[in-house]
Structure formats: C-alpha cells, structure tokens
UniProtKB/TrEMBL annotation, chain A:
Subcellular location(s) per record: Cell membrane; Membrane
Protein name: Heme-copper oxidase subunit III
InterPro entries to which the protein is assigned, alphabetical: Cyt_c/ubiquinol_Oxase_su3, Cyt_c_oxidase-like_su3, Cyt_c_oxidase_su3-like_sf, Cyt_c_oxidase_su3_a-hlx
Protein family (similarity comment): Belongs to the cytochrome c oxidase subunit 3 family.
CDD domains noted in UniProt: Heme_Cu_Oxidase_III_like
Keywords: Membrane, Transmembrane, Transmembrane helix
UniProtKB/TrEMBL annotation, chain B:
UniProt xrefs under Pfam families: COX1
Residue ranges of the TM segments: 48-70, 97-123, 144-162, 193-213, 233-259, 294-314, 326-347, 359-384, 396-418, 430-456, 468-487, 517-538
UniProt keyword Metal-binding present: yes
Protein name per the record: Cbb3-type cytochrome c oxidase subunit I
Signal peptide limits: none
UniProt topology in membrane: Multi-pass membrane protein
Segments forming domain Cytochrome oxidase subunit I profile: 31-596
Keywords: Electron transport, Heme, Iron, Membrane, Metal-binding, Respiratory chain, Transmembrane, Transmembrane helix, Transport
Entry's localization field: Membrane
InterPro entries: Cyt_c_oxase-like_su1_dom (IPR023616), Cyt_c_oxase-like_su1_sf (IPR036927), Cyt_C_Oxase_1 (IPR000883), Cyt_c_Oxase_su1_BS (IPR023615)
Organism: Pinibacter soli
Length: 192, 606
C-alpha cells in the first residue's frame, strides 16, 4: 500500500499542491480588496478638495526592511530544503523580526504624518494612506503570526517533517505582502 | 485516493498512512467533533442548510410584518404591540421599525439565506461528492467558514435586540444615511453591528469560496476532466469565483464607511446639513457615489452568486428527471462563463439615476443588455432538455421547471430596466421590486427547494414527503406570481418602493385593494413555507427510508456512495469516471452512470 502511495505521490509531482493553489486564489482576493481601495483613490484624486502629503523618510526605511525580510524568507526556504534546520529556524526568526520592525516603522511614519497635520479629517492622500497601509500592516501581522506558528512547529519535533509545502506557502505569502507594499508605495508616490 | 496522496504526500514515507485504501475514517468521534466543529463537508453543508432555514423563517416573518402594514395601513393589530413592544406602539408598526424590517429582510435573505444557505449548503455537499473527493481541499478552513457565518449571524441577530434597533438604511446601506449616527436611529449602533456582521460574513464567504475553487480544480477523481463535470459543479465553481473577486471590494467599501462613521474622515461625506441636530457638518470632498460603485461592484455579482447555484442544480435535476441528456452542455458552461464575466461589467446599471455620468451609462446599458444573450441560451437549453422528455414530475423536478418559468418572467423585466432611459421612470419603484424578487428571490428559492428535495435522500437517507412537496410547490408558485406580478403595474404607475403608507397619496390610492390582496397572499405563501420546514424536520427523523443507493437513477458520483456515507464518502477506492454526467436514454438504456466504462459498441455521445 505504501509503495503504491509513493508512486502516486511521485506521479502527482507536477500538479500544484491544493494548499498552494488555495493561497494563490486567496491572494487574488486580497488583490481585489486593494484594487477596490486604489480605484477609489484614483476616483477621489480628481475631486476639487484633494490634498496630497509629503512622505516622511521613515517609509523609505520600512520599505528597505520589508525587502530585506523577503530575502531572509527566501534563504530560510532554501535552508529548509537542504534540511539545515538550525539555519532555517534562525532565518525564520529574523524574518519575523524584520516583519515586526516594518510594522513599527510604519507606525512611526504614521505618527510623523499625524504630527505634521494630516489627521483623519478629510479624504485626501493621507487618509487613504492610513487606511490602505493600515490594512497592509494587518496582512503583515498575519504573516508574522504564521511565522511564529511555523517556528514553534519547527521545535516541537514530535515527528520529523520535511514537507516543504507549508514553508513554500509561507514564503509565497511573505513575498506577496512585500510586493504589495512596493506597489502601494510606488502608487502613492506617483499618484499624489 | 490521489487527493490524499497530494495532501499528505510527504507524511506517507515517514509514518504509517493512517488512512490506507479505505478512506473512510474510523476515528473516535465525539458529539462535538461530529455535529458541532465538524470537518466533514456533508455535516458542514447541513449546518449551513439548517442555519439558512432558521434565517429564512426570520426573514420571511419580517416581510409578513411589513406586508401587514402595507396591506392594512389603517388597521391596528394590538397583538403586535404585545410581541414587539414600542416598535409597534398602539398596534401599528412604527416608521423606524418598518425601515428596520425591510433592511433586515433584504440583508438576511440576500446574504444569509440565498448566499450562505444556498451556496454554503450545496457547494459543501455536492462538490466533493460529485467530483469524487473525500473532502474539501482544506476541511479546517471549511469549518471556519461555517463558524464565521455563525458568529456573523449572532452579531446580526443581536442588533435586533438593542435599544436603537437594527440598521435601517436598506440592504444597500447607502451613505450619508448610513454614515451619520445622527441621521436616523437605525444609523446608530445597529449600523455598526450590521457592518461588523457583514465583514464577518465576507470572511466566511472567502474561506468557503477559496476552498470550493481549489477543490474543484485540484481534487477531481481519476477520469473526471473538467468537461465531464456535472453542471452543478460548474455553476458552483463560477459562483465561488464571483464571490472571491467581488466580496473583498465590498469589504473595502465598508472599511471606508466605518472610518467615515467613527474617525471623522470624509470619503463619502460632503456639504451636509443635519436636520435632526440643526448642524452643518465639517466634512468636505467626499462622494456618496463612490460608495455605490464599491457596493454594486459586489452587489451585481452578488445577484449571480445567488442565481448560479440554482441554475446548476436545475440543470442537473432537470436532465435526471427528463431522462434525457442536458441539451447543449458546452453552451451551458459557456453561458455561465459569459454571465460571470459580464457580471463584473454591469454594476453601474443600479446607478443610472443616482448621479452617474450619462455618457458612461450608455456603455453600461450595452453590457447589461448583453447578459440577455447567455441567459436566453440557458433558457433555450432547459426548454429543449424538457422537450419530448420522459418527465418524472417529482417535487424537485417541479421546482426546477418553476425556476425556468420565473427566470423567464423576471429576466424579461430586466431588459426594461437595463435601458437607462426607461430606468428614469422605473428606478426605485415597485417594478424593480417585482423584477428582482421574481428573477432572484423566488427563482433562487426554487433552485434551493429543487436541490433540497432532490438531495435530501443523500443527506439524511430518507425521503421528504411527496404530498406535502406538491402542496408546497403549487401554492408557492401560484402565490409568488400573485404577489409579484401586480407589483409591475404599481411600478409602471410610478409607485415608489420603501414607503410605509401610500394611502395619503392620491395617485396610488387606487392600489389599496391590490396591496391588501398581495399581503393576504404573502401570508398564505409564508404559511406554506412553514409546511415545508415541518416536512424537512419531520422527514429527517420519520421520512420514508431510502432503500437503494441510487434512488433517482442518476449518473453522478454522489449516488455511488453508501446510503449513509461516512467521513471520506466512499468505502474503498474512489470510483473512476469514464464519461460525462448526462448519458440518459442512450442506446436504449435509461441511464449510464459516470463510473461505467465506454463499451466497444456504444454510440458516440452528442
Ligand atoms: C437580462 C437580465 C437582467 C437585466 C438586464 C437586469 C437589469 C437590472 C437593472 C437595470 C436593475 C436596476 C433597476 C433600478 O434600480 O432602477 C436591476 C435591479 C436588480 N436586479 Fe436585475 N437584471 C437582470 C437579471 C437579473 C438577475 C438574473 C438577477 C438575480 C439573480 C437580478 C437581480 C436584481 C436585483 C437584486 C436588483 C435590485 C437591487 C436593488 O435595487 O435593491 N437581475 N436589474
Ligand atoms: Cu445588477
């Protein structure tokens, strides 16, 4: 029976794993939410009372941090596949820390904006930024929690599991929130 | 079998496969894991169905209450005050409560009954069974999907019991009314609870939809190519695609609304003077139209989210009971696909007269009228499927035929409304009410009934009572036409929707008798639905037992499972599929199940 199953497994190699597929569909759904918001932004931009903002430097730093976290995520996936579990766990931790740092930096950026007079009053670039970047932060935090869960799983070695699928799903998601932020940031900078 | 190999592939080599070959899980099941936090798609389907039934009773009851007001505007019903308290002071439904009732009626029936109750039930039940899978791609997410729906229901119900009452700005919750707590009492806490409940509902739909899509695309049994899928599965697939791509946009609209309500932003608000507080609001630069775009970008696909599953089940039940192959299988798939695409491109036909640029409107007219083409193809195919069939008039079949009738009647009025110039007159009148209740409300209910009567034996191993089924069908279809047909005339005369009393209005006085009549029929039809509910619960325990695995002589895979399938659906290997689902009346045989290999001397199908 086991042999038969293994044959099945190798026979199925080329097909995409359902969990990965589910993730992709889920990402499409997330994209639609941000597409909805950025379209609203584009429509509102032509309204007469549109107010733009000056981006504090912090957002550039956070962008760099986000990019770096994508890199460490990719490296941890590579180490997992090479079964170097110690390195994998270390990189996973770094990714989670960078993710958290990103969130902190975003909030510092928000704080600076707020101090410079951009509050919730109105519906210009700043208000959209609070909401859109805020929602993005929620997605990053979701990723951080998932990373923590994977981290704990990597330690509770009840059964040795070298199934790369969960790690691949995780890294795809992480790259997604990274690219999503890049898109949003560029969008805000160019569509002021 | 192959699904498990994919899902648990790498565990296989490290520890003994705990479900070898049999698939049927023999884990110890507790009451909680079997009935409450179940991860069996069949049990989750039943949870959706029964929750949906409870919601339908509530939502229907609300309509009976406001029909009492509309049909008998001068009468008082002291007993109403006994149950409803100050909402029905002196035995008359108060205006605030009237608006709360219509709002909740719409929300509950559109989302909680015809979306969750319909897709939730049948996508869960039929997808794994008909494609030959042991369960969904992610049973856990599937369970979460139900429980998010449940929490959302609890939040929505709780809004009925707070002092300021539930949301009351209509099921569309347009700002500025919905954005300003001071604008009406229904815009206070009730509106917040509405938004929270709807946000939870969106999460539930997304979790479900993701699962349905990836299950259909990845977990089909051997031989089940996409073009061999029953039309139910195709319909449920496109339903899920619509939901996954449009619900998030609605969510983004709600988020902006929440900020306008509580954070002082002005996405939707501009230049407002509030009569209730005699104050001018500081908000500037917002646009209420923006909300309408975001809302209807979901809102229109939503009506097809409600309709497509019904269409799929009707196709399946009709072919089975006409003992004939479905006519034009590929055309059916193609037209569902066309409807899905068009559903994303027509949302602004709900906004022709609310400030949309008329130039833009003309594009939306064109695209809207295009929907008539795939719709007509489907109707044609249903009728030709019936043509010279060996029809078995089971209750399920009657509801399927009734669906087609309703879809034609309601679709035709859509063509009127789709013309932006005619819509100037018809918008926000009873004509619209008649249109969408016939084509969406009643028709989808018929699809749902058709599904329940047909698959009840698979769900509970017993039949629903037929006599009650026939009574249910005939009174419902006659009643539905008697209720909604006259509304077309009221609408053509210009009678607006969302008013609680027309008697003081000289031009609409003439409809007093008609409204009276409609209300009486509504009460009768509602009572007959209770008969169905009785039949449903009675038959779960006392219905006639199903004796054979395939009581309807059907081709699809769900009828190859045991009468009471366990978690895992098939004992032993999942059957392999060799043909499409519609070989009825072929080569002199009444039906040939999908599992039967094509024999050497068999004629080609279609
Ligand atoms: C040939 C097909 C159809 C066309 C051309 C069409 C067109 C329209 C138009 C233009 C309106 C807006 C009327 C107004 O508010 O002034 C409308 C309303 C509506 N339609 Fe249709 N429709 C079609 C089929 C359907 C179907 C199949 C469904 C549902 C399954 C549906 C559900 C609705 C609903 C729910 C509304 C009213 C929403 C509201 O204002 O509360 N329609 N339709
Ligand atoms: Cu529409």
């Amino acid at each position: 029976m086991n042999i038969a199953m293994n044959e099945q497994v190798s026979g199925q190699k080329k097909r995409i794993h359902p969990h990965k597929f589910t993730l992709w569909v889920g990402l499409a759904s997330v994209i639609m939410m941000f597409a909805g918001l950025t379209s609203a932004y584009i429509v509102k931009r032509s309204a007469p009372s549109w107010i733009t903002i000056e981006f504090p430097k912090t957002f550039w730093y956070s962008t760099v941090v986000m990019l770096a976290s994508s890199l460490t995520m990719q490296m941890s996936l590579r180490d997992f596949k090479q079964r170097d579990m110690a390195k994998y766990r270390r990189l996973l931790t770094i990714t989670a820390l960078l993710g958290s740092l990103f969130v902190v930096l975003q909030f510092i950026g928000f704080g600076k904006l707020w101090k410079s007079g951009t509050t919730f009053e109105g519906s210009g670039e700043g208000q959209f930024l609070y909401i859109i970047a805020g929602l993005h932060i929620l997605h990053v935090l979701g990723g951080v929690i998932a990373l923590l869960i994977m981290f704990i799983k990597a330690f509770s070695a009840k059964k040795k599991n070298y199934d790369a699928v969960p790690v691949e799903v995780m890294s795809t998601y992480w790259h997604f929130v990274d690219i999503l932020w890049l898109y949003l940031f560029v969008f805000f900078l160019t569509m002021a | 079998m192959s699904n498990e190999a994919i899902l648990h592939g790498s565990e296989v080599s490290t520890h003994e496969a705990h479900h070898d070959g049999h698939g049927e899980h023999h884990h110890h099941e507790t009451f909680i894991s079997k009935y409450v936090f179940s991860m069996d798609h069949k049990m989750i389907a039943k949870q959706f169905l029964i929750t949906g039934i409870i919601w339908a009773i509530l939502g229907g009851l609300m309509s009976v209450l406001f029909r009492l007001q509309l049909g008998f505007p001068d009468t008082t019903f002291p007993w109403l005050e006994n149950i409803l308290g100050h909402w029905a002071k002196g035995g008359k439904i108060q205006p605030e409560f009237y608006y709360a009732l219509v709002t909740m009626h719409g929300t509950v029936l559109v989302f909680f009954v015809l979306t969750a109750g319909l897709s939730g039930t049948f996508a869960n039940f039929l997808i794994p069974l008909q494609i030959g899978a042991r369960d969904m791609a992610s049973p856990f997410m599937n369970m979460l999907s139900y429980w998010f729906f449940f929490i959302s229901s609890v939040v929505m119900i709780s809004s009925l019991f707070i002092q300021t009452g539930p949301a009351s700005g209509g099921w569309t919750s347009y700002p500025p009314l919905s954005a300003l707590g001071d604008a009406s009492i229904g815009s206070k806490t009730g509106m917040d609870l509405w938004l929270i409940a709807m946000a939870l509902f969106v999460v539930s739909s997304l979790l479900g939809g993701l699962n349905y899509i990836s299950t259909i695309l990845n977990m089909r049994t051997k031989g089940m190519s996409m073009t061999r899928l029953p039309l139910t599965v195709w319909a449920l697939f496109f339903t899920a695609v619509l939901g996954v791509l449009s619900f998030p946009v609605l969510l983004s609209g709600f988020i902006l609304l929440l900020f306008d309500r509580h954070a002082g932003t002005s996405f939707y608000l501009s230049d407002i003077f509030l009569a209730s507080t005699q104050k001018a609001l500081p908000n500037e630069g917002g646009s209420a139209i923006l909300y309408q775009h975001l809302f209807w970008f979901l809102g229109h696909p939503e009506v097809y989210i409600i309709l497509l599953p019904a269409m799929g089940m009707v196709s399946e039940v009709m072919s089975t009971n006409a003992r004939k192959p479905i006519f034009g299988y590929m055309a059916m798939v193609g037209s569902i696909f066309a409807i899905t695409i068009l559903a994303f491109l027509v949302w602004a036909h709900h906004m022709f007269v609310t400030g949309l640029n008329p130039f833009l409107g003309s594009f939306f007219v064109l695209l809207t009228l295009l929907i008539a083409v795939p719709s007509a193809i489907k109707v044609f195919n249903w009728l030709t499927t019936l043509w010279r069939g060996n029809i078995r008039f089971t209750p399920a079949m009657l509801f399927a035929i009734g669906f087609v009738s309703l879809f034609i009647s309601g679709g035709l009025t859509g063509i009127w409304l789709g013309n932006s110039s005619l819509d100037i007159h018809l918008h926000d009148t009873y004509f619209v009410i008649a249109h969408f209740h016939i084509v969406m409300g009643v028709a989808s209910f018929f699809g749902m009934f058709c599904g329940v009567y047909h698959w009840f034996p698979k769900m509970y191993g017993r039949y629903l009572n037929n006599t009650m089924g026939y009574i249910h069908f005939w009174i419902t279809i006659v009643g539905a036409y008697l209720i909604f047909w006259p509304m077309h005339y009221e609408g053509l005369a210009g009678m607006p929707r969302r008013y609680l009393d027309y008697s003081g209005w000289a031009s609409f006085n003439q409809f007093g008798g008609l409204n009276h009549f409609i209300s009486i029929v509504s009460i009768i039809v509602f009572a007959v639905q209770l008969l169905f509910v009785f039949n449903f619960f009675y038959s779960i325990f006392k219905g006639r037992r199903v004796k054979s695995e395939n009581p309807w002589g059907s081709n699809t895979l769900e009828w190859t499972t045991p009468i009471h399938p366990g978690h895992g659906n098939w004992v032993g290997e999942i059957p392999e599929v060799h043909r499409w689902a519609y070989d009825y009346g072929k080569d002199g045989r009444e039906f040939i199940p999908q599992t039967e290999p094509i024999s050497a001397n068999e004629s080609e199908h279609h």
